[in-house]
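Please check this record.
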Amino acid sequence: VDVLAFAGIGRPVKLFNSAAMLGANVARTVSVGDHQPISETAAQNVLDGAAEGLTLVTTTKDRARLSALGPNARRLAQEAIAITVTAELDPALKILVRKTLQGSGTDADR
């Protein structure tokens, strides 16, 4: 399946790589700044990708954010397939975070 993947996350390449790992051919990508709302013009440009036969793919977070914006963005939220992207901490960072939380009296297992 040929897809247009769009994301407004800190590392949009994670979405693009996830889509490819799921077997999609990532034909086009669009990145919006992390936590930045997508403009109506940008949303229309992404929707135009669907008109070209591309399947629209985004993150679960971005699809939820689109639902609260203008009409093009809401339509984009309805038409896009959402992929959940998760962060994986480096094992050394996990140990540091756990030690820091334990030292502060916070439950590190939450």
Summary: The longest strand covers residues 25-31.
